[in-house]
Amino acid sequence: MLFRRLLTSTAGRLAVRSRLSFPQSSLGQFRGLITGRTNAIPVCRGYLGQSYFKRRFSVSGLLRQAAAVSNPPKTLLNSSKWVGYWLIGTSGLVFGIVVLGGLTRLTESGLSITEWRPVTGTLPPMNQKEWEEEFEKYKQSPEFKQLNSHIDLDEFKFIFFMEWIHRLWGRAIGAVFLFPAIYFAATRQTSSRVNRRLFGLLAVLGFQGFIGWWMVKSGLDQEQLEARKSKPTVSQYRLTTHLGTAFVLYLGMIWTGFEILKERKWVKDPAKALEAFKLLDNSALRPLRKLSLGMLALTFLTAMSGGMVAGLDAGWIYNTFPKMGETWFPSSRELMDPHFARKEDKSDLWWRNMLENPTTVQLNHRILGITTFFSVLALHSYCSRRKAIVPKAADRTVKLMMGLVTAQVGLGIATLIYLVPISLASIHQAGALALFTSAIVFAAQLRKPRVPMKILVGGLHVQQSKQAGSKILSEVSKLAK
Fold this sequence. Notes:
Blueprint: H1 2-17, H2 26-35, H3 40-48, H4 50-56, H5 59-70, H6 81-106, H7 128-139, H8 142-146, H9 153-186, H10 192-220, H11 222-228, H12 236-268, H13 270-280, H14 286-311, H15 332-335, H16 349-356, H17 358-384, H18 392-417, H19 422-445, H20 453-480
Helix pairs in contact: 1-3, 1-20, 2-20, 3-4, 6-9, 6-12, 6-19, 9-10, 10-12, 12-13, 12-14, 12-19, 13-20, 14-17, 14-19, 16-17, 17-18, 18-19
Subcellular location: Membrane
Protein name: Cytochrome c oxidase assembly protein COX15
Pathway: Porphyrin-containing compound metabolism; heme A biosynthesis; heme A from heme O: step 1/1
């Protein structure tokens, strides 16, 4: 009798460990085990299987089970939560450098450092002699000769420090990203999938440093300036590429960090994760999911058109709204000025005016900004009519987007009307990235979980089997008394 009781208790524990849940009708069989009317061995074999029963009662089987529990396979699900926090924190530094880069552009400081020294350029000039040497290098640049020949050493120090801080911040982001990434990978706190993403982000980060110098070089090379028929300023194409790469880097960090934290939360509570999956798997959400990605692309495109406006100083013309001057639109002759075509057959007339004519570029930005505003308004209305199927978090985010896009349009109009004051223009650029952030979060909240369903179901079975197993053991204990 004692052997049967011990075997029954062991079988109950094995059931819990094996993620199996016993139906309520099984209690009768366990009563039979206690009273001796039922043989324990066939019951255990019936529930666990012949081979399973032998395997679980062997020492090697128990060792294999212990190893499987203590060394789970590395997947995205068990990447450390600190990896997620670190990525989101680093994205905050990227946000800061985008705003600082805008200030560097607005104060016309970007061409003050005429050399690219990734290592030795970490320190600024430390004495009067070094400052004078640095100033002499700047005096050889086209910007000084054509635009800033009136500035003295003290004024040069201001624009130098603006650019130096911008470059130093970029180096700091590189260090904050590289060394923790190596540590997390070396200590196996990241999955292979996350490692691939980190490697991709690191490549984008390194590429961004190269693009930064490539952009600055376009404003220092006299031959390039003559070919562009431009005053000493960086190419709007390279400036927008630099800005776009920063946005892509920011997107990758936010998305991956958000994904890690959310999926860890799902694995921790499989029941809620399965409920979330049911909600997100609703076919009625498919149009909204596509709209969220379209909104993300639209906010990105609008921000890039803002980069083109900044690169061409297009905000300094037509400082009225909603009209452009005395008319709603400039004349077609002004929008498609033959002056911007470089080929004799004028085959490049259209695209060069779209990307190089300040009037046309400003009109493009106005159209994209207004389109973004009404698109967010339509998205907000769409979600409001479908509250029953839209996740609550996504509904809150779209309301935030509505507030941000309204503020962003107001800032853009004020920046234009007041002739691009540095404070308003800088806040307007920060607002563009804030709106882009809300679009990222909204799209991520509507994304289906990538957690393998077998892991969620397995986790749910563990919870259920623990509950069922505890009930069985409690009942058996009562009967055994």
